[in-house]
Design brief:
With 492 residues, the chain is mostly helical. It has helices at residues 2-39, 44-59, 61-71, 95-113, 117-130, 132-148, 155-180, 184-207, 235-258, 262-281, 285-303, 307-333, 335-357, 368-372, 376-382, 391-428, 441-455, 464-481; strands spanning 78-81, 91-94. The protein folds into two domains: 2-120, no CATH class; 131-488, no CATH class. Helix 7 (155-180) crosses helix 18 (464-481).
Length: 492
């Protein structure tokens, strides 16, 4: 009896303390807004708008995640901020990063001051247990990255690089979706949003084919809208978005097939064709390799064909891809293709040379571009320095063998999570092992491997185009652990 009274008293004291903290925070916030309005009236409206937006995102967190998904592909859409009261400050913030930051702040406020605080804390504890191995290896990698700043030409810039993009992509693109996507309805909204973005990117890509004149090889490229290239100017950015879109569309197809909705299944498959065509029409070698990885994974885990079916399927696919093969060959022989090959070879040679200088902890995280700018051979031939084309060529010279190995173990631990959920779902599946295995965890595994293969040749290894779909997939895996029936959901 006394123990019960003591517990009740502690709970009451905790509730009073929380109310006092909330009151203090409200007073500080109102005082800050009042002072802000007196001293900087031109920014008062902006401050109030941001405060209201954060409040709305705290109340409806899915709005922030959907907005992140709608803008993650359009990295060149930025908010420019050059405040007069801070001389020398000139910020260009991508809209997706700004939305992610506001969503993160709103989620933190909801965690500490919301009515669902205890449930949120329990969810965080569950998340910590589920992801303790990836968190450990990523923490070790961050330690190596911090140690590498000893050799960095600009130590402060290297520390900034650790904060963003390294800590940033984990907090914004992995933690946020895993914390918000907690049921099938929210997952369905996310899949629909990703597919919508994929269709929009497909339409923009196909539109770029018209009006291309005096080019050696026609290919899908980003287009300008009102003088702005929302996706940037590189064809690989289209390929990467569509590479993540296709497995999500297959999730819908698998769901419709399991519901015996054959008309819906055929409709989804037909809508996938222009998406796949657009991806291949970018003539992105990294995109083609990533698509091949996804196809092999899905064939092995979903179709599991007999040898005769493999031969027939390979023949049909080869016939369909023959026109693209000719375009790839013409591009390789063209001056632009040969220049791109020389550029990548020189980047790889330079990366190996940098690595030999500090083989264990590297030359400092984020130092590849500044060091490349000092290479007269590269700048004389190609001008403006580019980042390393491939995550191995990026991490090896910047963080050495220790950094490459620890980040590799982080990636492997994530792969193990996807594979474990697929194996568990397959073991408990009541489907007959006939022609198809429609466990959607197989599609998430294909997405992770295909987009990861893309990062072996790309430069977007730490941004949302890659990590946000991975974060959504990890949320799907966590949902299955929390007891969401795999057989009743498209997110298995």
């Amino acid at each position: 009896m006394e123990l019960t009274q003591e517990i009740t008293k502690k709970q009451a004291n905790t509730a009073i303390l929380q109310q006092q903290i909330k009151l203090l925070a409200a007073c500080i916030g109102l005082s800050g807004l009042f002072f802000f309005g007196l001293t900087l009236p031109q920014w008062y409206f902006v401050g109030m708008s941001v405060a209201l937006l954060v409040a709305a995102l705290a109340r409806w967190p899915m709005l922030g995640l959907v907005a992140m998904t709608l803008t993650v592909a359009f990295i060149n859409l930025e908010v420019h901020w050059s405040p007069s009261f801070f001389s020398g400050v000139d910020l260009n913030v991508p809209i997706v990063d700004l939305v992610a930051l506001l969503t993160f702040i709103a989620g933190s406020l909801r965690l500490f001051f919301g009515k669902e605080r205890q449930a949120a804390v329990r969810a965080l504890h569950v998340m910590r247990r589920q992801y303790r191995v990836p968190m450990f290896w990523f923490g070790v990698f961050l330690g190596v990255a911090l140690l590498s700043t000893i050799n960095a030409p600009e130590p402060l810039a290297a520390i900034k690089y650790i904060l963003r993009p390294l800590l940033w992509f984990v907090a914004m693109y992995l933690v946020i979706p895993m914390a918000i996507i907690t049921d099938r309805r929210r997952m369905s909204v996310m899949l629909a949003t990703f597919v919508f973005v994929g269709f929009a990117v497909t339409a923009m890509g196909l539109a770029s084919l018209y009006g291309q004149h005096d080019v050696a090889v026609r290919r899908v490229v980003p287009i300008a809208i009102a003088g702005v290239f929302p996706m940037g100017t590189n064809h690989n950015q289209i390929a990467e978005v569509l590479l993540a879109t296709l497995p999500m569309m297959l999730l819908w197809a698998a769901y419709t097939l399991r519901q015996d909705n054959h008309r819906g299944y055929r409709l989804v498959i037909l809508t996938m064709l222009p998406v796949a065509f657009t991806l291949l029409a970018t003539l992105s070698r990294a995109g083609a390799i990533g698509l091949a990885v996804e196809a092999v994974v899905l064939l092995a885990l979903v179709v599991r064909p007999k040898p005769r079916q493999v031969v027939i399927g390979a023949t049909l696919i080869g016939a369909l891809l023959l026109p693209f093969a000719g375009s790839f060959i013409r591009l390789a022989k063209a001056e632009a293709g040969q220049s791109a090959n020389e550029n990548r070879l020189l980047l790889t040679e330079t990366a190996l040379t940098m690595w030999q200088e500090h083989p264990w902890i590297g030359n400092g995280i984020g130092s590849f571009v500044p060091l490349l700018a000092l290479d007269r051979r590269y700048t004389a031939k190609f001008g403006e320095p580019l980042d390393a084309h491939g995550i191995i060529q990026k991490l090896l010279p910047e963080t050495g063998l220790f950094g490459l190995v620890t980040f590799g173990l982080f990636w492997v631990s994530l792969l193990q999570m996807f594979w474990r959920k697929y194996a568990e779902a397959r073991a408990h599946s009541k489907l007959e092992p006939r022609t198809y295995n429609l466990e959607p965890s197989a599609f998430w595994l294909a997405l992770f491997l295909g987009t990861s293969a893309f990062q072996l040749f790309g430069t977007s290894y730490f941004i949302g185009r890659f990590w946000l779909p991975v974060g959504v997939g990890l949320a799907a895996m966590a949902m299955s652990t929390r007891g969401q029936k795999l057989s009743n959901s498209v997110i298995q």
